[in-house]
Specification:
The complex is a heterodimer of chains A (130) and B (169). With 130 residues, chain A is an alpha+beta fold. Chain A has 5 helices and 4 strands. Chain B is mostly helical. The radius of gyration of chain B is 66 Å and the shape is rod-shaped. In chain B, 96% of the residues lie in helices and 0% in strands. The chains are: A alpha+beta (130), B mainly alpha (169). At the A-B interface, helix 4, strand 3, strand 4 and helix 5 of A face helix 2 and helix 3 of B.
C-alpha cells in the first residue's frame, strides 16, 4: 500500500511525540529504512514539508519568517508578536537586497512585502506597460 | 472525133504505155516513198502533239507546284504570324507575371525590412530602458543606502504592521 506524504508526516508526528532525543534519533533511522523498503525515498522532501505543517498545526504554532535590511529590533519583534497573538515560530534573516523595509511570510502562505525593492519593482513594472 | 484525136497527136498505144508507166510509178512511189513519208509525217505530228501535251502537263505541273509552294508559303507565313502573335502574348503575360512577382517580392522585402527596423527599434528601446532602469535603480539604491536605518525603514515598518493587523483580524 502506498502512503501520501501527509500520512507519513502525521504518523511521524504521533510517533515522535513525547519521546526522548535518543528515541527520536532511532525513530528517524527506522523511518528512513521504512521509506527505502516502500520505495518512497523520493517523497522525503515532501514528507518533511508536510511534517513541518503538521507540527505547526498540532502545536498551534504560526511560522513567521521575517527578512530585514538591518537586524530586527526587539521592539518590532514584540509588536509583531502582539499583533499575531498566537505562539510563533519566528525565523529572522538579513537581506540587503530589500534596500529598505521588511518582508513577513506567515506559514509559507501569506507574504507581506513592505520593502523598497518591491516598490521599485512595481514602479518599473508599471512603466514597462507604456 | 477520130480526126480530132489524131490532130491532138494522141497515140493510144503510147498513151496506154504512159498510163501503165504512170500507174507503175505511182505504185512504186506510194509503196516506197509517199507511204513512209506520210508515216514519218504522222509520227512526227504525233511526237509533236505528245511533246506539246507533255509540255502542257509540265507547265501545269509547274504552275501547280508554284501554287502549292505559294499556298505552303502562305500557310507557313500565317502559322508563323500566329506563332509570333502567340509568343508575343505569352511574352506579355510572362512579363506581367514577372513584374507582379517582382513587385510582390519588393513589397515582401520592404515589409521584412520594416519588421526588422521595428524589432531593432523595440530592442534598442528595451535596451535603453533596461540601462536607464539599472542606472536609476543604482542611484536610488545608493541614495537609500545613505539614509539612516531608522528613518529609512520607518514608513515601511508602519505599512507592514498595518497590513499585519488587517490580516490578523
Amino acid at each position: 500500500m502506498k502512503y501520501s506524504p501527509r500520512q507519513y508526516a502525521e504518523s511521524l508526528y504521533l510517533a515522535l511525540d513525547k519521546k526522548s532525543d535518543r528515541q527520536r534519533r532511532d525513530l528517524w533511522k527506522r523511518v528512513l529504512l521504512l521509506l527505502r523498503r516502500n520505495g518512497d525515498m523520493a517523497k522525503l522532501p515532501a514528507i518533511l514539508r508536510s511534517f513541518e505543517k503538521v507540527y505547526l498545526e498540532k502545536e498551534g504554532l504560526q511560522k513567521v519568517e521575517i527578512e530585514t535590511v538591518s537586524p530586527l529590533s526587539a521592539d518590532l519583534e514584540k509588536e509583531i508578536k502582539n499583533i499575531l497573538g498566537k505562539k510563533l515560530l519566528i525565523s529572522k534573516k538579513l537581506n540587503p537586497g530589500l534596500l529598505a523595509g521588511l518582508t513577513i511570510m506567515i506559514n509559507d502562505e501569506i507574504l507581506i512585502d513592505a520593502s523598497a525593492k518591491r516598490q521599485l519593482d512595481n514602479i518599473f513594472a508599471a512603466k514597462k506597460l507604456f | 472525133m477520130q480526126e480530132l484525136i489524131h490532130n491532138f497527136g494522141i497515140d493510144w498505144k503510147l498513151l496506154l504505155a504512159q498510163m501503165v508507166n504512170f500507174a507503175l510509178l505511182l505504185f512504186i512511189l506510194k509503196k516506197f516513198a509517199y507511204g513512209p513519208i506520210l508515216e514519218m509525217f504522222r509520227k512526227r505530228r504525233e511526237d509533236i502533239a505528245e511533246s506539246l501535251k507533255k509540255n502542257k502537263e509540265a507547265e501545269e505541273n509547274f504552275n501547280q507546284s508554284i501554287r502549292v509552294r505559294e499556298e505552303a508559303a502562305e500557310k507557313a507565313r500565317t502559322e508563323a504570324l500566329a506563332l509570333i502573335s502567340q509568343a508575343e502574348l505569352e511574352a506579355k503575360h510572362r512579363k506581367e507575371v514577372l513584374l507582379a512577382e517582382a513587385s510582390r517580392k519588393v513589397e515582401e522585402v520592404i515589409l521584412d525590412a520594416k519588421k526588422v527596423i521595428a524589432r531593432e527599434k523595440a530592442k534598442m528601446g528595451e535596451e535603453v530602458y533596461a540601462e536607464s532602469e539599472a542606472l536609476v535603480r543604482l542611484g536610488i539604491e545608493k541614495t537609500i543606502g545613505k539614509i539612516p536605518a531608522a528613518t529609512r525603514d520607518k514608513d515601511f515598518i508602519k505599512e507592514a504592521l498595518k497590513e499585519l493587523k488587517t490580516i490578523s483580524r
